[in-house]
Amino acid sequence: MKRVMALLLSLALIAGTLTACGTAQAGTTADGTAAGSTSAGESSKETEKTGRVTLTFFTGKVETIDVMNEIINDFNASQDHITVVQEYQKDASNVIKIKFASGDVPDIMTTYEQEYADQGKYLDLSGETEIWSRLLDSMKVNCTDINSGKQYRICTNMTMAGFFYNKAIFQELGLETATTWDQLVSNLQTIKDKKPDVTPWFIFGSEAWHLGHLIEFIPHGYLKQKYGTVETKKAMLANDQSVLDFGSADGSMAVFAQNLLDLQAKGLINSDVLTATSDNCVQDFATGKAAMLSNGMWVLSSILAANPDMADQIGFAPYPSYMPDSKPVVLCAEDSGYCISAETKYPEECKEFLNYLFSADNQKKYSEAAGAPSAFKDVNAEWAPESIVTEVNNALNTAVNIGFTNEKPAGFTGDDAGRLVQDLLSGKYSAAEFAAAYKKAWDAGFSA
Amino acid sequence: MIKAKKTGLHTFMAVPAFLLFALFFIYPLTRGIQMSLTDWDGLSPAKFIGFRNFIDFFSDERAISDIKTTVLFALCSAPLLNIVGLIYALLMNAEFKGKGLARGIIYLPAVISPLIMGYIWYFLLQPGRGFLFHALDLVGMSSLLGNWMGKYSSAMMVLIIVNVWQYAGMTMVIYLAGLQSIPEELYESAKIDGAGSWQIFRYVTIPLLMPSIRINIVTNIIGSLSVFDIVMSLTGGGPGYSTETLSIYIMRMCYGSKTGYSTAVALILFVIILVPVAVSMRMTRSKD
User: Does A18 touch chain B (CB under 8 A)?
Assistant: First the structure.
């Protein structure tokens, strides 16, 4: 009897192990009818017994979760053949790589990578003329893939980046926003001299992406204002150093590095630059302990959450010119770009949902929730307090508007660039060495 | 002694265990070796490239720097963990009031997630705004707190200290179990023979503690060489890549569309861990 029991238990364990490790190759719906292949990731796309198609919408945009749920619920209730399900992941840009690798690709997503566009992973949306006709021309250009000339994503919003400054401090000290680097240094020095307890420019360097953004907006921004965003993107894709000139000891990268080192030496940036976080920066700015910070519009909601009374005191200015032949620049880039997977079984249903999402009413709601101006010409959203909108419009009208560049080498991310700046600020490099290291890392990124 | 009779049933009963071992160790290892010989980016079809990934690794300055960081961390962490753990165990093996509470306090950090622990220490040590800064500021000594996580040497020191602080309790528990299994008669005999405290420790305690020493050395070497969480949350591998360990490098390469390469590095890390573990096991076994 014991032998029989032992044999049965062993068999049960083997069966259990094998069953647990198996993957369903064919699924069955609740009413028992065959639902076809249900390989990984496709279960959500099954047609339910009611005949509804389920689409997965993948996003990493935490600020739009609630408004998207609201719009999705309205959409699901408005028709009887599509159900959209939202999936949010904080680390969306990395999670999507796993999803692509495992075949669990969402139908619609807000993550966009150049390498995936190159590999044909996104549906070509160039033919959506009705939507494109509603979009600002500059945003359509920003959504265009440089390599193929096609549009694989439709952005719904714009985002800007520049210097946020405390207007009360500037007014008290009689300062004007700087248009040249020398003026910026002079402003920062005045703040330091007159208000020793205030950090003139707060940089949260423990977060490498922020330092990477400084490179994106200042030295890369110089190239984009000099050659144009599209030409710079082409030069980046071709690694054309006659345009980029990253490694020169007197080039835009080295001058940027030297300027940063000078600010650090003069105590015009926070002394804890390498360990300060984004939260520290927001708190210090919102409580008047920091006079300036560099960031995008996405930081507004955090500042206003920390100090709701600050709306009238937030100023916004372009990055000043810092090379002999340069002009002030401000980032004006696409935001909330929607892509459809090339592998989706339901491209028409995806487009139907996007058309609903892109309606003027929904986009007004979306822009106001996201705190970002709409990219659609027919949407008039109150995306920020009026005083901030005025500041942003002034900056956009007085500086060269530059786009964001995704056209970087695959093996050299903005985060990697930020880590080089960390090394610079920790004393590892001189300005010339930094420029050389940047070019080396950039070149190496192409061979990755 | 009853000798178990080997039968077909006995062999069959080992099949479930073997299946699990094959599934969760042999299969991933085989697939890992296979993947390490390709240029797979996690997306496109993989192409066989021989040992190119391994050659690339040893010609990558960042990777070599990461090996140095990882080995330095392990060389400092593993011995310190054992020494501190043993001292704790010897102290906690003595009879005193509140012993249970003291043991609990020492062990407590080990049950907290190392990632959380890293963030806690980060906010304790932040210069100019952390808890420690404000505490020292109250007594006018805030200048003692430097920007420790902003410099390589001090950041490494912080990482090692936090790691030892977190896991010394776990090491202590293993040593404590070993100490309590040593028969009291042996100590009494040694005393009767005239042995002093040091001689008793050297010739009675240490030899009989050898199984515990072996377990602690092996687990601490593995833990220190594969450290990830504490470094990730305390310094993020920075400033720059100065405190980046191999485990973090593997993760970043994998997410950087170098999946095949990161698998090759994972195999290299496996060997880096295997060698000292094998050597220490051999050395401690010979002393049993």
Answer: yes
A–B interface: beta-carbon pairs under 8 A: 95
Q: How far is B170 from chain A (nearest CA, A)?
A: 30
Spell out where chain B has E strands. none
Put simply, the answer to whether A275 touches B149 (Cβ < 8 Å) is yes
ipTM score for this prediction = 0.83
Supply A310's token pair.
Answer: 């600050």
Whether A300 and A384 have beta carbons less than 8 Å apart is answered as: yes
The CA-atom distances, in angstroms, between A219 and each of A331, A345, A390 are 13, 43, 27
What is the CATH T-level fold of the domain B39-286, as seen in this structure?
Answer: MetI-like fold (1.10.3720)
Q: Domain spanning A37-157+335-370: which superfamily? A: Periplasmic binding protein-like II (3.40.190.10)
Q: Which token pair is A249?
A: 């000891």
CB contact under 8 A, A17 and B241: no
Q: Which pLDDT tens digit goes with each residue over B209-226?
A: 999 999 999 999 999 999
Structure tokens at A115: 């390498």
Supply the mean pLDDT for chain A: 88
What average pLDDT does range A404-415 have in this prediction?
Answer: 81
User: Which superfamily is assigned to A159-333+386-446 in CATH?
Assistant: Periplasmic binding protein-like II (3.40.190.10)
Contact assignment for B12 to A121 by CB distance below 8 Å: no
User: In angstroms, what separates the C-alpha of A92 from chain B's closest C-alpha?
Assistant: 12
Q: Which of A21, A275, A448 sits opposite B150 (nearest CB)?
A: A275
Tell whether the model's pLDDT for residue A194 goes beyond 80.
yes
